[in-house]
Design brief:
It is built from nine helices and eight strands. The chain is globular, with a radius of gyration of 18 Å.
């Protein structure tokens, strides 16, 4: 994407509440069309308020996003919206030229451009640790892992030409996928690690990274990976998920052994936000 470009920003924090790639039919009540974008917007904003404030060498940018429902069936036209917002993110990152990127986002597709930029800048010396309950390998332009493997339209290829091979992508915490998704992952040759395999220590993750021989690591954290007992509003209800303390330990262990150049956190409890909105909208004086 860009190689050997002079860095202007130490750390760029992106607030990117993109919702268009989410599985909206699972979250939007039929009488609340348009509510999901507000949920993601609020969720991404809450994340930003909860994490430590930006440091001296850090700059925060909020990504503007489309909130229009453009298709005839009342749902969004996610392809056009994501393409438009991807171009905006790409332009901002190229202008800021950061050394590291932290993205607080809505859906998983928000990872694609930050990782693409960093993978290009560091001359493809980057591995991806994808902490998620499922492999995200179905729809090419909303499912970031498929996009990284080159399964994307020419429109998107022009925006982020670099690709990350399956051999440099590790899924950590998977537990919720159907047979077709499992077949996708197996066919792609992408390694997956269950929550049980990181319950006691991070050794299996660190060993995999050492085997890859790459110095830089990008971490994608989907909050749905957490067990419902830890994040009750998670849209993933499958139990035996990874615990918050285990996620913290895995990421810190990665950062201690490798150069953590970027991280994305997605799925900030849109279901909970929508439920609160729906309830309050039915009360007097609101």
């Amino acid at each position: 994407m860009i190689e050997n470009k002079e860095l202007k920003t130490k750390v760029l924090r992106l607030i990117h509440p993109q919702w268009h790639g989410g599985i909206l039919e699972n979250w939007i009540p039929k009488d609340m069309k348009g509510g999901i974008e507000e949920a993601y917007k609020i969720g991404a904003g809450v994340q930003n308020m909860m994490v430590p404030q930006e440091q001296k060498e850090q700059e925060t940018v909020t990504i503007p996003l489309s909130t229009e429902i453009t298709s005839a069936d009342g749902m969004h036209n996610e392809y056009d919206d994501i393409l438009k917002q991807t171009k905006v993110v790409s332009d901002i990152i190229l202008e800021k030229a950061p050394e590291r990127i932290v993205t607080l986002a809505g859906d998983a597709s928000a990872t694609v451009i930050p990782l693409g930029y960093l993978n290009g800048y560091y001359q493809k010396d980057t591995s991806l640790v994808w902490i998620d309950a499922n492999p995200d390998v179905s729809v090419p332009y909303t499912m970031a892992l498929m996009a990284w493997l080159g399964k994307r339209s020419e429109d998107f290829k022009r925006l982020w030409p670099t690709m990350v091979p399956a051999s440099r992508i590790l899924i950590v915490g998977y537990r919720a996928w159907n047979q077709s998704l499992k077949e996708w992952q197996d066919d792609l040759g992408m390694k997956g690690i269950s929550p049980l395999q990181v319950r006691e220590d991070s050794g299996i993750v660190l060993d995999w990274l050492k085997e890859k021989g790459k110095k830089k690591v990008y971490v994608h954290l989907d909050l749905s990976v957490l067990d419902p007992s830890e994040l009750f509003s998670s849209h993933n209800r499958a139990h035996n998920g990874i615990k918050a303390a285990e996620v913290v330990r895995v990421v810190n262990d990665i950062a201690a052994a490798f150069d953590l150049v970027g991280m994305t956190v997605v799925e900030p409890t849109p279901k909970l936000v929508n439920k609160v909105r729906e309830t309050l909208s039915q009360l007097p004086l609101f």
